Amino acid sequence: MFIRKNPSVLAFLAILAIFTLTVTVMSEAGGTGAIPTSMVKTLGKTLCLALAALAMDLVWGYAGILSLGHMAFFALGGYMIGQWLMYARTGEIVTATLMNAQIPPTATEIRDGIAGQIFGVVGSAELPLTWAFAGSLPMQLLLVLAVPGIFAFLFGWLAFRSRVNGVYLSILTQAMTLALALWLYQNDSGFRGNNGLSGLQNIPGLTHVSQADISVWFLWASAAALALCYVLAAWLVSGKFGSVIRAIRDDESRVRFLGYSVEAYKMTVFTLSAMICAIAGALYYPQAGIINPAELAPIASIYLAVWVAIGGRGRLYGAVIGAVVVSLLSSWFTGGRAPDLNLGFYTVNWVDWWQVLLGLAFVCVTLFAPRGLSSIIDALAGLRPPMRRGKDLGPDLGALRESEAEA
Amino acid sequence: MTALLEVSGVSKSFDGFKAINNLSFSIGARELRAVIGPNGAGKTTFMDIVTGKTRPDQGQVLWGEKSQSLLKLSEAQIARAGVGRKFQRPTVFEDQSVAGNLTMALKAPRGPFRVLRWKPSEHSSQRIAELASEVGLGDQLARKAGELSHGQKQWLEIGMLLAQEPRLLLVDEPAAGMTLAEREQTTTLLRRLAETRAVVVVEHDMDFVRRLACRVTVLHQGAVLAEGSLDHVSANPEVIEVYLGR
After folding, report:
1. Tally of structural domains, chain B
2. Distance between CA atoms of B34 and B227, rounded to whole angstroms?
3. pLDDT digits over A130-150, tens only?
4. Which DSSP letter does residue A293 get?
């Protein structure tokens, strides 16, 4: 029933499955080896970014909340899983070293050893309170959801209840991610300051497994998370709940007079989307291997918004397409693999000029194709926006313009 | 007859300008009432106060049998308590279908998690079809509200109000921009609605108020100037001076 009403979900899942299988078959782990492990990791990370874009589309494209701080939740998820990865891995090494001594080490000795190893770099040997659960995987997995969730809930509670809207809310979210980044930069905040957490690609207990295998496992995990969250998001936005949040985007005060508590809905969507972002981050950083406070820089969240805008906001596949296309293009251009463009009088070096190209693409999409890349799919599917002679769909600035509306 | 809504001694000023000045007003559970007054008389502010959009500086707004104060409730809570509001220009959700608009308005639990679990039932789809045909949109259920004509949007919004099943309906200038035939239809509808609930019509157009044939409250400078039948208030010299005479 749900699939019949949303055929795009089935198409999306099929494409995702084919993609994942193809990469697996061509990977170095038991495959032909046509795709190197580093590329498998890049593709796995791209799926995580697509998941973050999906979360962004829920808050921005559907509920009309332009959050420019969503990557803070992504990074928080990464930090939470990173704590366990680093603690457990260091624990293995420390235990192995101490075992060579004549007297077997006590639990306290191992703990002190781990603390010294992890925090020596910031001039401390004490395990901070924030690492209290670092030894337990289930606890840290719970924190992956709980910390960003509670953080987003509190932020939403403060911002939405005071009816902060539009550009002011965007600025507030920027301030949030910047403040969090600045706090994490401090050595005494308990997250190793600007060193961040590293060595996350080494999964504790799996030292005998090659990175080639692990990269494929993470690719599958990322694809599964993306698939599950896509179905969840599609279910959310297709029912009455989706109807209400789109109504909030288009005319918030009218929704209030219908008896819906706009704040409660915004908080629900914002918190849920922060948690999806956190899952994406928790899968991303073990593939990236390192996380530091620079990941929370406001620019990262702005990129997220750009992906969703270029892909097409207000439709879930649009966000995924945008994130995949732009982030893969970005790594191709900035990786130095793009051939320089010789204009005779000037040579365009894409490493420098990529950002200009991206900015230009963003401006063009905003001006000429407000539904972004997903308008190609709409054209194929024969969807047409209704003619409203240029009138806006709602009185709010955040409301969709005519040309963006679903057909 | 006990009053459904009782507004007493309410004042509200914006930057020193007294929009509402010691206003008292009450309406019974099944009554049609027209509120008239010149521009700036405080008609819109009065509706804003009742619906919770604006908080008065002083005074009381009591609701229902238990005389519950509306001043501490949010707009959404007041709407859930049973106050419906029809805006002057049609405000429907243009990006969504007629059925979607009506579904959202349909009386049902409003919390996010209850709404998540909500599923269309035999009863709900029947009710939506019923409401749609009542406002003449029976064959337009699948269309986007944005594609409807101005008049159809007005009717859709009325349908949404009916779906909410409010006990008090505040209607802001329903006759604005309507043809004569549409006005006729609207008066009939408002009169019929007032048989089962309280309806307050804020109106500029005296001709339309005459058609409603109900009690009239005249507002002037944020206070009640006169109240009674239209003939009674039109005979009032003060009313003539500030409003009708011009």
Report:
1. 1
2. 10
3. 898 998 999 999 999 999 999
4. G
CB pair distance less than 8 Å for A240 and B93: no
Residue A382 has pLDDT above 70, yes or no: no
Length in residues, chain A? 407
A398 — pLDDT class (breaks 50, 70, 90)? very low
B-chain residues within 8 Å CB-CB of A259?
76-77, 79-80, 110, 164
Instruction: Name the residue of chain B whose CA is nearest to A402's CA.
Output: B95
Confidence of residue A302 (pLDDT cuts 50, 70, 90): very high
For helices A240-250 and A262-288, what crossing angle results, to 10°? Answer: 100
pLDDT (tens digit per residue) in B46-91: 999 999 988 999 899 999 888 889 888 999 999 999 999 988 777 8
pTM of the model: 0.90
Is the pLDDT confidence value at B246 over 80?
Answer: no
Q: What is the pLDDT of residue A402?
A: 46
CA separation for the pair A201, B207 (Å, rounded)? 78
Contacts of B111 in chain A (CB under 8 A): 261, 264
Q: What's residue B232's pLDDT?
A: 87
The answer to whether A277 and A55 are in contact (CB under 8 A) is yes
At A406 the pLDDT is 43
Which stretches does DSSP call E strand in chain B?
3-14, 17-28, 32-36, 58-63, 68-69, 83-86, 168-172, 198-202, 215-220, 223-228
The CATH number given to whatever domain includes residue B197 is: 3.40.50.300
Q: What angle do CA B24, B26, B29 make, to 5 degrees?
A: 170
**What is the extent of the structural domain holding B43?**
3-244
Question: Measured between CB atoms, which of B80, B91, B105 is closest to A251?
Answer: B91
In the DSSP assignment, the letter for residue A58 is I
pLDDT above 90 as % of chain A: 55
Considering only CB atoms, A406 lies closest to which of B95, B104, B115, namely: B95
* Cα–Cα dist A323/A284, whole Å: 14
355-394 of A, contacting B, C-beta below 8 A: 386-388, 393-394
